[in-house]
From TrEMBL:
Pfam families: Usp (PF00582). It comes from Christiangramia aestuarii. Transmembrane segments: none annotated. This is Universal stress protein. InterPro entries: UspA. Residues 2-137 form the UspA domain.
Length: 255
């Protein structure tokens, strides 16, 4: 497996790296730490630019060594990528060149929304990158997910498609899932029980519900194509994360 970890050298992104190593502790994997810098290559003082590049590379390599020491799996390999491209271009390039299967990104707290990768840009990654992504909240320590919630919109995902998702999913045990059907307005859907796993009555996705979810479950699982739920969770202006801290990981799954 090939895994991309986005880092800006903050505690939140360092924590996301540790979470990634723990999440895949039983899986052999190649990890790539990606850092993005806006180097001015037209600058005349080339020695200053060279020092900046060397310093940043040194920090990136140091973080890779720390993660290697932290990981309990000897089959975990850690590599570095330093890019001067914009975030989305750099991630897309890594996806192709390194054949990335899974991305980890730190989910900023309310004090960190100005960070270059965390906060606002995490939403861009989720919306524009078609790869499985786990957003790890600041300070969140890995524990084996025992209870996962899967908010679904029946207008986006039918019961047949829901079953296909779990047949394909390798990361989490489907028996640990609770399907939470999200409705808009007064719409009601038939066949509320899939017979595969617990299924709750359709509810509106409100901030209070999100608070309750974080108390009851260990991880939130959502489909990347379910844009309305992604927006309500992660939009940098209107989503829940814009006004409150996320406390449990969010797994954005792309089929």
């Amino acid at each position: 497996m090939n895994v991309l970890i986005l880092t800006d050298f903050s505690e939140t992104s360092e924590n996301a790296g540790k979470y990634a190593a723990d999440f895949l502790q039983k899986t052999s994997a190649n990890f790539y730490l990606l850092n993005i810098q806006t180097f001015d290559f037209n600058r005349s003082a080339s020695n200053v630019l060279q020092n900046e590049v060397v310093s940043t590379l040194g920090q990136l390599q140091l973080d890779a060594k720390k993660l290697k020491k932290y990981s309990a799996n000897k089959e975990h390999k850690f590599n570095t990528i330093l890019s001067s491209e914009n975030l989305i271009s750099a991630v897309r390039k890594a996806l192709v060149e390194k054949k990335i299967d899974l991305i980890f990104i730190g989910a900023a707290s309310q004090d960190e929304h100005t960070h270059p990768i965390l906060g606002d840009h995490a939403y861009d990654v989720v919306r524009k990158i078609k790869c499985n992504i786990i957003a790890v909240p600041a300070g969140c320590k890995y524990e084996t997910p025992k209870k996962a919630v899967f908010p679904v919109d029946r207008s986006i995902l039918s019961l047949t498609e829901q079953k296909k998702v779990f047949d394909e999913l390798n990361y989490l045990d489907k028996s640990d899932f609770t399907l939470l059907e999200i409705k808009d307005g007064d719409v009601e859907y038939p066949e509320n029980s899939s017979g595969l796993m617990p299924f709750k009555t359709p509810v509106a996705f409100t901030k209070k519900l999100f608070v309750d979810i974080q108390k009851e479950f260990d991880i939130i699982f959502i489909l990347g194509k379910n844009l309305s739920i992604c927006d309500r969770l992660l939009h940098n202006e209107h989503g829940f994360s814009a006004n409150m801290d996320i406390q449990i990981p969010i797994f954005v799954y792309h089929r």
